[in-house]
Design a protein that fits this description.
The chain has about 270 residues and is an alpha+beta fold. Helices cover about 55% and strands about 20% of the residues. α1 (about 1-55) runs antiparallel to α2 (about 60-85) and α6 packs across α7 (about 240-260).
Length: about 270
């Protein structure tokens, strides 16, 4: 019984001494922890509202919020540990080494991720835009963090990694609202120039989908040994580009033939 009382007395003495040495620090660290948690929660609410107000893409909002809050929680834990004189050097070294290893293993993935973030932030294109990139021409149907999905005119699905997409040339056909359609018509030297131009202009004016402003243009662009090259330049909506091109070329050929203009090879 005396031995138990002695051990209990020693424990109380030890605990009392520890509280005298570390009690104030412990109380301060608990207060800092509680205040820090409240501050981080407040920052999270404000950050979510700010991103919604600035119309940050919905795919990026959870990532930025999670990344910010995680970083704040880590700093808070390190700060509380420092108040209690806990050595965080080893922890920092392990965390740094782990980060380097993961970075090397996932370098390609990180490149695609960074490209996706930049695409969503800078918006070189948006959903339903017609773009030409990486040798592909199609409509943007999905923009993900790691890749972008296009649908081609012949209904193929093209998946392009964002790292490659953002680091190469992107042609946004849709952004300006209209696109110039260019093609050539080759006629012999025996064809009256003014007659050929009038027939082609009249044909263009009857084809639906041709935008009249800027004005259409038909003229001679070059001379070859056996024929003259006429250029046709009209403006169309990007979504109507292929349909108008087909209809316009068919109409011009039919009207030239109907007017008795002899076409090359006929």
């Amino acid at each position: 019984m005396k031995l138990q009382d002695s051990n209990l007395h020693a424990f109380y003495n030890t605990a009392y001494s520890w509280l005298l040495l570390h009690g104030l620090t412990l109380v301060v660290s608990i207060i800092v922890l509680l205040i820090g948690l409240r501050v981080i929660k407040f920052i999270g609410i404000r950050l979510r509202g700010r991103m919604s107000k600035r119309k940050v893409h919905s795919s990026l909002q959870p990532f930025f919020l999670s990344l910010t809050l995680t970083a704040l929680y880590i700093f808070l834990i390190i700060g509380v540990a420092a108040i209690n004189d806990i050595n965080v050097t080893a922890f920092s070294a392990v965390l740094g080494g782990f980060s380097v290893a993961v970075g090397l293993a996932l370098s390609g993935t990180f490149q695609n991720f960074a490209g996706g973030v930049l695409i969503l932030l800078l918006k070189p294109f948006e959903l339903d835009d017609n773009i030409i990139a990486q040798g592909q021409d199609g409509i943007v149907v999905s923009i993900q963090i790691f890749y972008t999905v296009l649908r081609t005119p012949d209904n193929k699905t093209i998946i392009i990694p964002n790292g490659k997409l953002f680091n190469e040339v992107i042609v946004n056909v849709t952004r300006e609202g209209k696109r110039r359609l260019d093609f050539e018509v080759r006629l012999g030297y025996y064809v009256d120039v003014d007659q050929a131009k009038k027939i082609m202009i009249d044909a263009i004016n009857t084809v639906p989908g041709v935008i009249k402003d800027p004005a259409i243009r038909v003229g001679i662009i070059g001379f070859e040994i056996e024929h003259i090259r006429y250029t046709v330049n009209v403006w169309v909506s990007p979504s109507d580009f292929l349909n108008v091109k087909i209809a316009l070329q068919e109409k011009i050929i039919k009207d030239l033939k109907a007017a008795g203009v002899k076409l090359l090879g006929t």
